[in-house]
Amino acid sequence: MKEILLKYMTQFTSLSEEEQRTISEAVRIEAYKKGAYLLRQGDLPIIKCYFVLKGCVRQFVVDESGKEVTSNFFTEEQAIPIFNDQQQIELSKYSFMCLENSILVVGDLDSEKVMYNNYSQLETMTRKMMEISLSEIQDEFAEFIRSSPEERYKAILKKRPQLVQRVPQHQLASFLGMTPESLSRIKKRMKND
Q1: Domain boundaries, the chain
Q2: How confident is the model over 148-169, as pLDDT tens digits?
Q3: Which residues make beta-bridge pairs with 54?
């Protein structure tokens, strides 16, 4: 599993192999069972970040009517930032739940500060990874707004085909902004074409 982490350090830093090994041994890696929550909506969030080595984590909110609305899925080699304004104590607006047994790198503010002080290139790596993630989110949001439900499904098949097999259809439909019935019709229509 640590090979994935080492890949990112090699890609975004010029740390020596020894420094990379030292860092990979120092980071906290935890296993989570399917159904485990990293954070629940309404809880007071602790500032943490996660990096998925293996598994799938869903970000969702339960609206006023009790309906779950999925806003993201995080899979291998994706960071899951959980931010809370330190000046303002605010309850979490989202839940993050493991859809599969997952193995995650877990970072907290204190351990990150120590690592950044010891290895300044890690802060640069984190910033670059967050810039890439933000850019992807912006592109996905713009595409979501201008596309039809069928175009959104085709985009998922092209960009993240594993999601179709890994997540329940009703959660995928919610993520795509449609009902499960609409998603079924789109799948059937595409299969017949």
Answers
A1: 2-120
A2: 999 999 999 999 999 999 999 9
A3: 103
Look up residue 39 and give its DSSP letter: E
pTM value? Answer: 0.87
Q: What is the dihedral of CA 126, 47, 111, 51, to 10 degrees?
A: -50
Phi-psi region of 45 (alpha: psi -120 to 50; beta: other; left: phi over 0): beta
Cα distance between residue 119 and residue 20, in whole Å? 10
What is the distance between the alpha carbons of residues 100 and 64, in angstroms, rounded to a whole number? 27
Segment 80-91, tens digit of pLDDT:
877 654 545 778
CATH of domain 2-120: 2.60.120.10
DSSP of 52-115? EEES-EEEEEE-TTS-EEEEEEE-TT-EEEE---TTS----S-EEEESS-EEEEEEEHHHHHHH
Q: Residue 49 in 3-state DSSP?
A: strand
